[in-house]
């Protein structure tokens, strides 16, 4: 049944001219391996296989993220890594471990939310004002800044992550930030903030904030 489920989707993708197939957000290594097997058999195109990330840092069948990535790489996945659940801050430590162990290309696609060591996934984030879980409708209270997204992309490039993106909660301006940090100039770059045209900052944001802070101290 599961094989048929994957086969149907893979054959549709290949018929539509897919260059490669992404199978993502698996919490079970066994299921991810089955998807990979089906891609190799029915798709015969490169396979990107990424695991989801639970609060425990383990898969549902008890593997660490490094172990899961290694098993998938050894089984023939062209790209392995993580996507979803964790924000940039709590995904990066795992990516560093995966990079140290895996030989081929790796992928990192966090959610653009400010997860923390004590609330490491978007599903575990709690809104301080209500003491209730933010997931799913109140997650905007935890959205990342553009700077955080750029910093994540920069760190990915530094450690050798080749496949960089974002998952649930992503927006066009975030992808533009990622692309520009990776040295690209997408069409949307013409909408990138230009502080030289700002009526207050006049091109020097740091100088403005320094003067504002100084005036506040004096008063």
From TrEMBL:
Xref: InterPro entries: BHMT-like, HCY_dom, HCY_dom_sf
SUPFAM superfamilies reported in the protein's UniProt record: Homocysteine S-methyltransferase (SSF82282)
GO biological process: methionine biosynthetic process; methylation
Residues the record lists as binding Zn(2+): 84, 167-168
Entry annotated with the keyword Cell membrane: no
Pathway: Amino-acid biosynthesis; L-methionine biosynthesis via de novo pathway
Cofactor, how bound (note): Binds 1 zinc ion per subunit.
Cofactor: Zn(2+)
Official protein name in the record: Betaine--homocysteine S-methyltransferase 1
Organism listed in the record: Mizuhopecten yessoensis (Japanese scallop)
């Amino acid at each position: 049944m599961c094989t048929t489920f994957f086969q149907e989707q893979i054959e549709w993708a290949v018929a539509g001219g897919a260059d490669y197939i992404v199978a993502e957000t698996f919490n079970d290594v066994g299921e991810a391996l089955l998807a990979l097997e089906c891609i190799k058999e029915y798709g015969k195109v490169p396979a990107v296989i990424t695991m989801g990330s639970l609060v425990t840092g383990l898969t549902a069948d008890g593997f660490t993220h490094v172990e899961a990535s290694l098993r998938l790489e050894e089984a023939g996945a062209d790209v392995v890594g993580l996507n979803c659940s964790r924000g940039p801050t709590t995904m990066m430590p795992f990516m560093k471990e995966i990079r140290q162990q895996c030989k081929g290309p790796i992928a990192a696609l966090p959610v653009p939310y400010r997860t923390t060591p004590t609330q490491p996934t978007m599903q575990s984030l709690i809104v301080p004002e209500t003491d209730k879980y933010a997931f799913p409708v109140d997650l905007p209270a935890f959205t990342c800044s553009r700077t955080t997204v750029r910093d994540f992309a920069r760190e990915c490039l530094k450690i050798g992550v080749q496949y960089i993106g974002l998952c649930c909660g992503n927006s066009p301006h975030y992808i533009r930030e990622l692309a520009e940090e990776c040295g690209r100039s997408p069409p949307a770059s013409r909408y990138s903030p230009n502080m030289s045209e700002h009526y207050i900052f006049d091109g020097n944001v740091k100088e403005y904030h320094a003067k504002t802070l100084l005036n506040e101290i004096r008063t």
